[in-house]
Amino acid sequence: MKTQITRAPQIIRTVRMRMFARRLRVLWVKGLVRDEHWIGVDLGGTWVRVAVSDRSGHLMAKISERVDKSSAKAISDQMIRLTRFLCSKHGFGIKSLNGAGIAATGPLVQEKGVLIHPTAMPFDCVPITKPISEELGIPSCLINDAAGAALGEKMFGAAKGLDNYAYITISTGIGCGAIVNGTLLLGKDGNAHEVGHIVIDYEGRLKCGCGKRGHWEAYCSGSNIPNFIRMRLKDMPTRLVRESLLLKMAGGDLSRLSAIDLFAAAGKADNISARLVEEIGVLNSIGFANVINAYDPSLITVGGTVTLKNRAMILNPIKKHVKDYIINRISKIKVTPLGDNVGLYGAIAAALTYIS
Ligand SMILES: [Zn+2]
Question: What residues make up the domain containing 236?
Answer without folding.
Answer: 161-336
